[in-house]
């Protein structure tokens, strides 16, 4: 009955680690969406182009023979541009040669960081709901994940005692994604201070995923955890160009970490990928030099899309949670007019919506350690042109 493929593999020739995680549900939903000609509100990527300045700079780089490997840890122009940008935006002093490593997207950045610091059996704490990549990252690096719940009923806050209990003798790191995908939670300064204090007290590293650092609503501010007292030396800060400059296919991200951590991370990065695409790195360097108004315009534009999607979902019978940041909305679907069979769980619902209403979303269970915690919710993405969101509106409210 199910169209979402069954990923269980039975073949003795395969490594044990591939049994530890399934294929990406997010990308599977994109495939299903294409199969049914649905409006893809599943996978989070914009349906418009990067800024022309970035496109032109990448094309110029190709014409100027910058088509072979860059320095493994990133083209010097890009590392300098990152250093300049994090100084004015994050308030962080990063030396291009000592602290910055350019990677193939923040996806590779997280994997390279985990492989550089985690030993088999080490524990890593993750707040849930969480971005699905962290599961496979843990499986491939040998980490055991310990989960701390963000409670939607309490405004996505977490219980301090639960966090303290998650720390143990093998805790190597905490992964912190702010703004968070999929919940849209933006961690506050007091929350970050608490997490940072615990990391310092227990000797743990903090690995941050700040890919949505420019996409926040309601006047909220992004606080880079590395700027908090005592956290700079123990923070591996990850961000990238995909979301801020609408270039998810370019695969350019970066890591900022203290020199010793950076040396280790550059080692894993080098043998994973050698480097990010050279001409595209130069395109990103141009994007990083855009005026500050670019970022205010970006926020304004996403704010309009957020409001539109919330209204569409409400009109279609969903109970949607207003995000504080990032570009996703989690929504309960029990109030939607759909056959009972479609509402038995999140996967059945996502399939039905894709097939029958021709709008796709991501099943909520893929963001939870216990699938039952996500059984009644799905995630929608609103990084879409207004006409795309209007097309979804027409299909959902017909
Ligand atoms: N981060 C995006 C999402 O959550 C894209 C995921 C992916 O396919 N890499 O949808």
Task: Explain this structure.
By secondary structure, the protein is of the alpha/beta class. The chain folds into two domains: 4-49 and 293-396, Aspartate Aminotransferase, domain 1 (Alpha-Beta Complex), CATH 3.90.1150.10; 52-287, 3-Layer(aba) Sandwich (Aspartate Aminotransferase, domain 2), CATH 3.40.640. 38% of the residues lie in helices and 14% in strands. It has helices at residues 25-35, 52-63, 76-90, 105-117, 134-141, 160-166, 189-202, 259-273, 278-287, 293-315, 346-357, 386-396, and strands at 39-40, 100-103, 123-128, 144-149, 171-177, 205-209, 235-240, 253-256, 319-321, 328-332, 359-360, 362-363, 377-381. Strand 9 (319-321) and strand 10 form a beta hairpin. Helix 4 packs parallel to helix 5 and helix 4 (105-117) packs across helix 8. Glutamine binds next to helix 1.
């Amino acid at each position: 009955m199910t169209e979402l493929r069954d990923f269980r593999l039975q073949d003795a020739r395969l490594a044990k680690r591939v049994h530890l995680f399934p294929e990406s549900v997010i990308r599977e939903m994109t495939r299903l969406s294409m199969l049914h000609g649905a409006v893809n509100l599943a996978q989070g990527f914009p349906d418009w182009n990067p800024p022309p300045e970035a496109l032109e700079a990448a094309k110029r780089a190709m014409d100027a023979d910058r088509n072979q490997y860059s320095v493994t840890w990133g083209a010097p122009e890009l590392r300098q541009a990152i250093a300049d940008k994090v100084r004015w935006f994050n308030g962080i002093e990063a030396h291009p040669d000592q602290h910055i490593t350019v990677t193939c997207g923040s996806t590779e950045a997280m994997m390279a960081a985990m492989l550089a610091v985690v030993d088999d059996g080490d524990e890593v704490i993750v707040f849930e709901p969480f971005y699905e990549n962290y599961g496979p990252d843990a499986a491939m690096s040998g980490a055991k994940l310990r989960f701390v719940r963000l409670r939607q009923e309490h405004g996505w806050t977490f219980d301090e005692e639960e966090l303290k209990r998650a720390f143990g003798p093998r805790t190597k790191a905490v992964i912190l994604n702010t703004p968070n995908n999929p919940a849209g939670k933006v961690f506050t300064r007091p929350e970050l201070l608490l997490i940072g204090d615990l990391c310092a007290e227990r000797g743990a590293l903090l690995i941050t995923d700040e890919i949505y650092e420019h996409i926040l609503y309601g006047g909220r501010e992004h606080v880079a955890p590395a700027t908090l007292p005592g956290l700079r030396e123990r923070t591996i800060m990850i961000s990238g160009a995909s979301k801020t400059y609408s270039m998810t296919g370019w695969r350019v991200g970066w890591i900022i970490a203290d020199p010793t951590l950076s040396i280790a991370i550059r080692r894993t990065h080098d043998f994973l990928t050698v480097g990010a695409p050279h001409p595209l790195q130069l395109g990103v360097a141009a994007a990083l030099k855009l005026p500050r108004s670019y970022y205010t315009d970006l926020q304004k534009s996403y704010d309009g899309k957020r409001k539109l999607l919330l209204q569409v979902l409400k009109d279609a019978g969903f109970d949607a949670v207003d995000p504080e940041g990032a570009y996703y909305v989690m929504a309960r679907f029990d109030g939607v007019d759909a056959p009972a069979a479609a509402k038995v769980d999140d996967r059945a619902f996502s399939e039905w919506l894709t097939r029958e209403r021709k709008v796709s979303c991501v099943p909520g269970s893929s963001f939870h350690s216990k699938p039952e915690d996500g059984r009644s919710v799905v995630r929608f993405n609103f990084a879409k042109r207004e006409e795309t969101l209007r097309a979804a509106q027409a299909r959902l409210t017909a």
